[in-house]
Design brief:
The protein has 18 helices and 16 strands. The protein is of the alpha/beta class. The chain has a domain of 130 residues: Isoleucyl-tRNA Synthetase, Domain 1. A 6-stranded parallel sheet has the order 3-2-1-12-13-8, sandwiched between helices. α10 crosses α11. The chain binds zinc ion (ZN).
């Protein structure tokens, strides 16, 4: 029997701006997987949270006349509010500025100093504060950061470095032994090649910024934000080499580490090297999903190129958003977000296929079954056939192939709609009355199956369907509720509509 919980973690989101759809995407994926596992009675721990020592926080807070801590508190609360709006059920929300977290990071840093995997040395080359990285002359573009294009600073003095070099062999052996560790495989090869080409030591702390986690034995130096964020995947649930933690032991290693593809190297190379140095087990899987683009560009607040999840929820509802994000594009790939695509999916798949199926079955059940809930149909071909799809839908969800699972569910809805078209139950009353009730029994039970499959993806819709279909109530005894249409059809957006782009 499994005693360890299935530990899922999202990235820890930087609080330099309010959350947008890109942040919601990763966290929704974690929620779908967690909900699915819970329905299978597998104990889950879903950790999410905010990284609060990002390099630009001090400046942003100052510009708003706020203390950095107050700014972080406000934005972190925005993240939690959005998770609530999106129906995301997490078990733990950590804030990296929490003293328990910073304490764990400091203790881990000291442990690595003692083992020699972190060392102090002269600061080489030029430094980009946004990257928290030193670049040598060959890597710079002129005197500018190759990533940000802004001037890299000559800092001088000393900094702390993590011995990333020398980990190549262990990492490559781990990748080879655990082919699912870096996922999806299409993105993994590039990382593996970069490790084969050799790794360079990286700076992990540098002299004095006021807002950050100080190195305990050398408080004039501050740990880089990304370094502290990585350690918080373990420190959040209680890792602290100074003392034991039962919580941590019951959770670690993470089963699924979700990240955007922009931080795959951080999560797939640097983080495992750090864990090896700390003597901790590596996560079972690091999964880098794709990006949502708008007009071809990556969704990003700093570029002003983003969608507010709240706007979509207001216009279409939470479940339509959850559906669209995971149906439109396979989770590992990039996808273009557009108001037209959303409206098309909504009208065709939600209002057209699923909504129509529900309303037809409920209307027919109301009319011909007198709202009485039928018993499970023995010997029903269609019910038997669809029941056999459950395993494949579960497998797709567990492999984070969310679009495959949804595609199967909609294929089933299509089958059922076509079956109703063929059988014409509204004519059966006169032509073959004896077959009418058994047919509607089948339809009700098939729709219950569909509602069960939808539950992790569209929890509100699934509960409304369950309510209408009387799931959990005594067969034959209870009148199901008649509720309004699940997905009223949407018409073209008006100019000025925030989603009309
Ligand atoms: Zn940079």
């Amino acid at each position: 029997m499994r005693t360890k919980k299935f530990y899922i973690t999202t990235p820890l989101y930087c609080v330099s701006g309010k959350p947008h759809l890109g942040h919601a995407y990763t966290t929704l994926a974690a929620d779908i997987l967690a909900r699915h596992l819970r329905t299978r009675d597998i104990p889950v721990h879903l950790q999410t949270g905010t990284a609060e020592h990002c390099p630009d926080i001090e400046e942003i807070a100052k510009g708003r006349n706020m203390a950095p801590g107050d700014w972080c508190g406000a934005v972190s609360a925005d993240f939690r509010a959005l998770w609530k709006t999106l129906n995301i059920e997490y078990d733990q929300f950590i804030r990296t500025s929490d003293p328990a977290c910073t304490d764990g990071v400091q203790a881990a840093f000291e442990k690595l100093l003692k083992s020699g995997d972190i060392r102090k040395g002269p600061a080489p080359g030029r430094y980009c504060p946004a990257c928290e990285t030193f670049y040598d002359e060959a890597e710079l573009k002129g005197k500018n950061c190759p990533v940000h294009g802004r001037p890299a600073e000559q800092v001088g003095g000393e900094a702390y470095f993590f011995r990333l070099s020398g980990h190549e062999g262990a990492l490559l052996r781990h990748y080879a032994k655990h082919p699912d560790f870096l996922s999806p495989p299409g993105r993994a090869q590039e990382l593996v090649n970069s490790v084969k080409a050799g790794l360079k030591d990286i700076s992990v702390a540098r002299p004095g910024t006021a807002w950050g986690v100080p190195v305990r034995s050398d408080p004039g130096h501050t740990v880089h934000a990304w370094f502290s964020a990585l350690l918080n995947y373990a420190a959040g649930p209680g890792y602290n080499p100074d003392r034991g933690s039962q919580d941590f032991q019951s959770l670690w290693p993470a089963d699924v580490h979700l990240a955007g593809r922009g931080s795959f190297r951080l999560h797939g190379v640097i983080w495992p090297a750090l864990l090896l140095s700390l003597g901790l087990e590596l996560p079972r899987k690091v999964y880098a999903h794709g990006w949502w683009t708008i007009n071809g560009g990556k969704m990003s607040r700093s570029k002003g190129n983003f969608i507010q999840a709240e706007d979509v929820v207001r216009d279409y509802g939470v479940d339509a958003l959850r559906y669209f994000l995971f149906r439109e594009v396979p989770f590992g790939e990039d996808g273009e977000f557009s108001a037209e695509a959303l409206r098309r999916r909504y009208n065709a798949d939600l209002a057209g296929e699923l909504g129509r199926l529900c309303s037809r079955v409920m209307t027919l059940a109301g009319k011909y079954l007198e709202h009485r809930l039928p018993r499970k149909p023995e010997g029903s071909e269609i019910f038997k056939e669809l029941s056999a799809w459950t395993q494949e839908i579960h497998r797709s969800t567990e492999a984070l192939r969310f679009s495959d699972a949804l595609e199967s569910i909609w294929r089933a809805a299509g089958r059922l709609n076509r079956l109703i078209d063929e059988k014409k139950p509204w004519e059966m009353e006169k032509k073959e009355p004896a077959a009418l009730r058994p047919f509607l029994n089948e339809m009700v039970w098939c729709l219950r199956l569909v509602a069960g499959w939808l539950d992790p993806y569209m929890p509100d819709t699934a509960s409304k369907m369950h309510l209408q279909l009387g799931v959990g109530m005594t067969p034959g005894g209870v009148e199901p509720q008649n509720l309004p249409a699940l997905f009223p059809r949407k018409h073209d957006g008006k100019p000025g509509d925030p989603l009309h782009n």
